[in-house]
Amino acid sequence: MLKKNIDGDAGMLPRTFALVCSILVALMKCSATQGISSFLMSIQDAPRNAVLTSLSHYDKQPSQLLHSLYLLKEAYAYSHGENLTGSICTELREGIIDVCKTQILPWFMRALNDIEDEDIASAVFETFHAILLQDYNTGTKTFANILLSSSWFSFSFGALGLFPTEKMKLRVYFLFSSLSEALIGDDDSGKCIRDAAPHLPSDPVNLFFLIGQKSSQNHELSSCQYAVLILLHISSFSDDRIADDKLVLASLEQFIILNSNECLYGPFPPRMLKLLVNLYALYRALAKISYQISYSLEAERIMFHLLAEKNWNLLTTKISPTSLKWLFQQERICKLLSLQILNFFRSYDDLKGQQNVDLHVVADLIASGDNFAGMLFVSVLEELADEFDKEIDTGLVLRAIHDIIEIAPSASDQLCLHGISSAIEKFYHQSRYSFSPDLFMSISELTFMILQAVQSESISEEDKWVGIVVKVFESYRLTYTYIHTYIYVYIF
Fold it and tell me: Which domain of life, per UniProt (predicted)?
């Protein structure tokens, strides 16, 4: 019936359509249908057909969309039932997510200004929220990223401008909370937004009034400020601007100045510090690009002092590439960044593959050459060559640099320009390393990878490289059984 009704062939009355959707939902909630594969197959296309019907008839029967969204939401919940597993459930879930991203989302973004009934707009937010609430599988994360790439934050605040009610505000912020959990992978961030939602404003400009206040011992204000920082952090992933850059930077600077004592000496949450670092660096970078936005030297001084005093881990946080580049362009914090690089290397193997760590961003940062990243990576490696009992750290550093060059071969040019040959030479002349088979293989493999990728004009210390290659072949004869495969691959 639903399939035939898409083009109006069935001649289904609006009340009949509503009844069909209600019956299907009632059947899904009935215990007798739980785990019945034949029932699952029979409702496989029902949500899609209901949505297509309601969208095609929206001008004449807008209320039908409410019934189809209700059916779609309940079908998605049904597919996650305890006794339901297998490919049929997966296909049902994937079909529902597909209709959300290919039908409902594009229609909603086009039609928002023409929607007169708040319940319809609210129902779309509720449906998307219900989908993101389920386990964060690949399809859910993909849908979250589609929302993000659709300028969802600015769009949602636009919806709040059209329907400025408490009900709509909570719908919007609750969906933001689920987006946060899906994209960051942190349940606490979503809970923070949900807890703060009743106290957050509908107008995004007023969000920055909250940030620019002294929180002191006001727990409610502090929670709201944390929630706003999370929202800004997530929206920055897709360059979605919810306010003017100048206003955001001024609010962040005011927060840093007014709350400097709490940040430095109070119980300032490490997660909040990471958000603040990312956002401050991002909007300072944007100010640098525009040449029209002034900045506070006092806020910068406090921020750099905060970075020096607090325990933070930059490269294991999901951070904007623009923010990262700005930080690595600041000569005043190079020493701090060296420690961050070493921390990153130490956690690299454990965090490999997680969304917070994107080695491609680090590789591109080094390859670009307009920052201190290449110099600092070489400096860390050279310091390890001068120290004793650092075999584990050294192995981690060599492996990560190897992966960086594999991702961005041009990074080898910057590493050579900053003297990586000196660090490698030290390793070959330190007996504690040259007689460690594992490290010797790692150093040799990295050496040949650099020489294979580097441009000839970037090699400034030819004599050192000649000496390194000679040393490799001398040691090769002594440790043939350990490295002959690697040498053979890179030479022949």
Answer: Eukaryota
pLDDT of residue 187: 78
Which value, to the nearest 10 degrees, does the dihedral of the CA atoms of residues 270, 276, 282, 286 take? -170
The percentage of residues in the chain with a pLDDT greater than 70, rounded to a whole number, is 89
Which domain range does residue 126 map to? 1-150
d(CA 370, CA 392): 30
Per the structure, the count of domains in the chain is 2
Q: Flag the least confident range among 117-131, 365-379, 415-429.
A: 415-429
185 in a domain, yes or no?
no
Q: Where are the alpha helices (DSSP H) in 312-419?
A: 321-327, 334-351, 359-368, 373-386, 391-407, 411-417
**Domain contains 169:** no
Last residue of a domain, one of 111, 129, 150: 150
Cα separation, 117 vs 63, in Å, equals: 9
CA-closest candidate to residue 40, choices 9, 75, 73: 75
Q: 402 versus 350: which is more confidently predicted?
A: 402
Contact 182, 140 (CB under 8 A): yes
312 closest CA partner among 282, 279, 340, 280: 340
Question: Domain for residue 72, yes or no?
Answer: yes
What pLDDT is attached to residue 428?
A: 80
Degrees to nearest 5, angle at CA 359 with 401 and 416? 35
Mean of pLDDT values over 51-75 = 93
Average pLDDT along the chain: 86
Which pLDDT score, from 0 to 100, does residue 7 have?
A: 61
The predicted pLDDT at position 492 comes to 47
In the block, which residue shows the tokens 């750099």?
Answer: 304
**The domain boundary residue, chosen from 116, 150, 184:** 150
Q: Is residue 65 part of a domain?
A: yes
